[in-house]
Amino acid sequence: MPVTDVRHDLDDLTLTMTADFAAPVERVWRVYADPRQLEKIWGPPGYPATVVDHDLSPGGRVTYYMTGPEGDKHAGYWQVTEVDEPRSFSFQDGFADLDFNPLPGLPASSNVYTFTAHDGGTRAVYVSRYASADALQQVLDMGVVEGATTAINQIDELLGA
């Protein structure tokens, strides 16, 4: 399994996940840069993602929805703030309605995804920062660790394709 470490810090307001992949940095980068590849890994198993808009550039926006086993749809967005291809990108991530408007009352996060060469492959570090301990606790209670872990663990299969 690629995910090797998961830590949350209610004082620092962060959730940090680390994963190792047996592929070069540029290949792991393409998983996020290509919307069709991103669709295969963004939702956890049983909740496939459909990427509607994909602009992975500073000021760009990525919109998507995940479809549950009962046909229920859960939308979200990224507002991209920084890109250092193929090493990192930063974005605001939030829950949205099906028109991709942010949902009030649900937490958004500031994220930095970093990819570095490590042991002949790539180490990815995913850091999400929340506005408050309550917001972080809310997503933890919603199962973000389990959902994100199973989603990230799908990357290995995609890289082997």
From TrEMBL:
InterPro entries: ASHA1/2-like_C, START-like_dom_sf. It comes from the Bacteria. Residues 22-160 form the Activator of Hsp90 ATPase homologue 1/2-like C-terminal domain. Belongs to the AHA1 family. This is Uncharacterized protein YndB with AHSA1/START domain.
